[in-house]
Amino acid sequence: MLILNGKPLAYDRAFTDASGIQYPANWLRLSSLSEKQAIGISEVSDEPSYDQQFYWGPSNPKQLNDEPAVDENGKELGYTQTGLKTLWSGKQNDIASSTLATSDWRVIKAKETSTDVPADWVTYRAAVRTACNTRQAEIAACTTVEQLKELFYGSAEVVKTKEQQKTDADGKGVVDEDGKAVMETVNVTEEKQLLDADGKGVVEPDKITNDKGEEVDNPKAGEPVTQTVNVMIANPGLATAWPTQPA
């Protein structure tokens, strides 16, 4: 972030310095660091970003559970301050209600005409209620704000991990002073064949160049060229998905 006279500057926007000199919109992009510094511009680190739904500021999470409200001296004020889990649980009710509302007319029609609601819609509406209850249970099970955020905004896939004993430089298992194995979490990897731009598997060429610069037969000709990659799995920390509406 660029700062001039205590105020941030935006790229591609004209500005005026303390002496009243005006600079065009492209000046910041075309000028060098020394030229910027010469007119009093300094560069500072951007403030860390954070999700205002879950945090008051960087590394400052909002209240997770319902708790008694207190004053600056810790004295209870006689009412409960609602936490994130209650707020997000209530949102699930709202989502379920609005989702069911789009097919309420089917239920009303069936009742008024003494007919049956189509079976797929009966199943769907029941699934919406089940999903709502399940999502609320998942919210209730969260013990940190990070877990709660992951429920709704986590990546679809995450790297698979496993616990294994640490090893030293000689490859021997590390133990603590009580003789217990010291464990660590590591990524699970696998070997996969490289693909070219057309999505076809890459194989070793028939010929290679040796250390003398001579072209010789490749003893591995035709074998797949592989690379080590992390094993990806469906994110187990995501909330249960809402059901898909019948066609």
Q: Short description, anyone?
A:
This protein has 247 residues and is of the alpha+beta class. The protein contains six helices and 17 strands.
Distinctive features:
alpha+beta; 3 domains; three-stranded antiparallel beta sheet; 247 residues; 28% helix; two-stranded antiparallel sheet
Provide an overview of this structure:
The protein has 247 residues and is of the alpha+beta class. The chain folds into 3 domains: 2-43, no CATH class; 51-158 and 233-247, no CATH class; 161-203 and 220-230, no CATH class. 28% of the residues lie in helices and 24% in strands. It is built from 6 helices and 17 strands. The strands form 8 sheets. A 3-stranded antiparallel sheet has the order 2-1-5, with no helix packed on it. It has a two-stranded antiparallel sheet with strand order 3-4. Strand 14 (207-209) and strand 15 form a beta hairpin. Helix 3 (84-101) runs antiparallel to helix 5 (119-140). The model has no long low-confidence stretch (mean pLDDT 96).
